[in-house]
Design goal:
With about 90 residues, the protein is an alpha+beta fold. The chain has 2 helices and 6 strands; from the N terminus they run αββαββββ. The strands form 3 sheets. Strands 1-2 form a two-stranded antiparallel ribbon. Strands 3-6 form a two-stranded antiparallel sheet. It is globular. The mean pLDDT is about 85.
């Protein structure tokens, strides 16, 4: 991967804000990642478990939370998706 692309991804901030309120069904938070040497945000316990696996994987060198919005048209309908994480190995 090109160094300029790595720098761009490293400076990326999550696409959505991570909110927390009393009574919500999921738990947002931040996890101190040894891989990133910084906090990485998560929106649910499921995301946290994926984040833990990624952080302990020796091949993963870089983790970005909700790095971008993907938009496409499928079956004539517009589709939008924000991936939970972008993992860069290498």
């Amino acid at each position: 991967m090109d160094n300029s692309v790595r720098r761009l991804l490293r400076s990326a901030t999550p696409w959505r804000s991570f909110r927390w309120r009393m009574g919500q069904k999921h738990y947002s938070g931040s996890y101190w990642s040894a891989t990133m040497r910084d906090h990485v945000a998560y929106e649910s316990r499921l995301e946290l478990s994926r984040l833990l696996f990624a952080d302990f994987d020796p091949l993963v060198r870089f983790i970005v939370a909700q790095p971008f919005l993907m938009e496409a048209v499928g079956k004539g309908e517009p589709r939008r998706h924000v991936p939970d994480y972008l993992l860069i190995a290498g």
